[in-house]
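pipeline stage [seq->struct] | target=Maltokinase N-terminal cap domain-containing protein | organism=Actinospica durhamensis | residues=222
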Amino acid sequence: MALIHHTTVKPSKVELLAGWLPTRPWYRGDAGSLTPTLVKSGGFRLDDPEGEVGIEFMVATDTSSSEPVAYLVPLTYRGAPLDGAEHALIGTMEHGVLGKRWAYDGCQDPVLIAELLSLFEGRAQAVAQSISDTLDHEVIRSYAGAPLTLSGFTPAPTDDRDGTHVPTPHGTILHVHRLLSPAPTGHPPRPEDDAVVGYISRSWNAPDGNDVAAVFMTIRTA
C-alpha cells in the first residue's frame, strides 16, 4: 500500500491548484477577478501496481466566497514527465524526499484511469489519503456493468461545465463529478439516474467542521 512521506512540498499542492482551477470549464468562481483560496478537505488514494505513480483524489474547497465550493481533483505525481501529456501538466513540485515531481490532471493519466476503473469493479482498494499502509473504508463503491477490459486503453477525457467525461472500453462513460454536491443529512449519496451502472462516493470535512458526503464518480451507459 501507499507510503505517505510527511515532508515538505514546494510549492504546495493547493498552491499549484489555485492557479490551475480557474482555467477549467467546471470552475464556478470568477476566473477573471478572484484567485481561489483552497483548503485540502479530504479524499483518498489508490496504489499504482508498479509503484511508480502517486494517485490521489483530493477534495479541495474554495473558501474565497461566503458559500464555499468543494471540487474533486484527481491527481497523479510522477518522477519524470509523462510523454505526450504536456497539456495535462498542472505544475512541478520539489518533494522533500522524492525530489522533483510532475503533477498531472489525473483524468488524463492512463495509470489513474486504469486503477479507478479497477476500484469500480472491486479489483483495487482505496487507501487512506494521509496514513501509510491503511485502507480507506469510507469509500463506497457500486458497479453492475460489464467487465472493464483495460488492455491498451488510453483515456480521451473531455471537460465541460458539468465535469470530466471519459469514454470507457465498453461504450459507457466515466463521469468525474468535479463540483461536489453534498447529499442531504441522513441520506447516503446515491445516483437516482437509471443510466448509472456504477458510482463511488465518500465524505469530507466541510469548512464549518461538519462531515458531508457526495458522489465522486459515476459510470453511465452511453
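stage status: PASS
auto-comment: The chain has a mean pLDDT of 89. The chain has one domain: 9-221.
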